[in-house]
What does this fold into?
Amino acid sequence: MSDSTPRDRAVPNLPSRDLDTSEAFYAGFGFERAFRDDGWMILRRGGLQLEFFPFAELDPAASAHRCTVRVADVDELAEAIAAAGVPVRDTGFPRLHEVRLQDWGLRAGHLVDPDGNLLTLIAEPALPEQRTTSTAM
It folds into this structure.
């Protein structure tokens, strides 16, 4: 592919008990509607995209739906989520788990939305060509 715009990608599809509620929740920290009809909704925040389908019978406490969100500035995203009123706590829906250095080596936190969807928020490390290195001359 000669152009630099990536065309291959994977996008999470998450269940929603109520699309209006999901849209309002994610709008609180910057996601905007890109598409919506009765059976599908696409929300975007910068380069992030989440897609939702209706699942009225979903039990948030039994949900195993999850996705990973990799961003350059995980602290900015976590701060926006907290500023939207999502509480930092270990139980309940919704909730935010603070960003911290994980045992596996990257800084990450977690967002659990009102439907029990778990979004792991990970600081995307810079690619080698993006890292600044100093060289002695």
